[in-house]
């Protein structure tokens, strides 16, 4: 697998990864009817570093890296990750997370924070914890899951 910076030509492949995740509405606080144009405008915002993970099957994942806040909070990174369903369980998410932590360190960030990890996304929570993130906050009933109803969201943090 190769993780590389995304180019505008990757947009269709990124949307192919994003669309099922957005439509499912189970892990991201994004509208389930988000258009391709709006989804890509959000993901590929000029303030984001955007990466893709590729295998022989093409683009199988994508992540964004950005400052969590401006000003006094600009030393804390924030990321979002999406892995193609066909590649689940193959280490793509872990590889992107490790890559993003290394990239954040290279950029001089002092920490990384995930602002809204849906608590029912057990696989992601366990993965982030295995990389060293800790749950530093719980937002009660902050996410309306399409099947489970209201579930908590976590704030997770890693000092770099």
Largest sheet: 7 strands, mixed
Q: Fraction of residues in helices?
A: 25-40%
Mean of residue pLDDT values: 96
CATH homologous superfamily name of the domain at 2-112?
Gcn5-related N-acetyltransferase (GNAT)
- First-residue to last-residue Cα separation: 25 Å
**CATH top level assignment of the domain at 2-112:** Alpha Beta
Please state the second-level CATH architecture of the domain at 2-112.
3-Layer(aba) Sandwich
Q: Give me the count of strands.
A: 7
Strand content: 35-45%
Runs in which pLDDT lies below 50 for 5 or more consecutive residues are: none
Q: Radius of gyration over alpha carbons?
A: 15 Å
Q: What count of helical segments does DSSP give?
A: 4
Overall geometry? globular
> What is the CATH topology assignment of the domain at 2-112?
Aminopeptidase
Q: Biggest sheet, strands in spatial order?
A: 1-2-3-4-5-7-6
What letter string, H or E per element, gives the SSE order?
EHHEEEHEHEE
Q: Please state the structural category.
A: alpha+beta
Your description of this structure?
It is a single chain. With 160 residues, the protein is of the alpha+beta class. It has a domain at 2-112: 3-Layer(aba) Sandwich (Aminopeptidase), CATH 3.40.630.30. 29% of the residues lie in helices and 38% in strands. The chain has a 7-stranded mixed beta sheet with strand order 1-2-3-4-5-7-6. β2 and β3 form a beta hairpin. It starts with a strand and ends with a strand. 31% of the residues are buried.
Give a quick set of tags describing it.
globular, about 160 residues, seven-stranded mixed beta sheet, 7 strands, alpha+beta, Aminopeptidase, about 30% helix
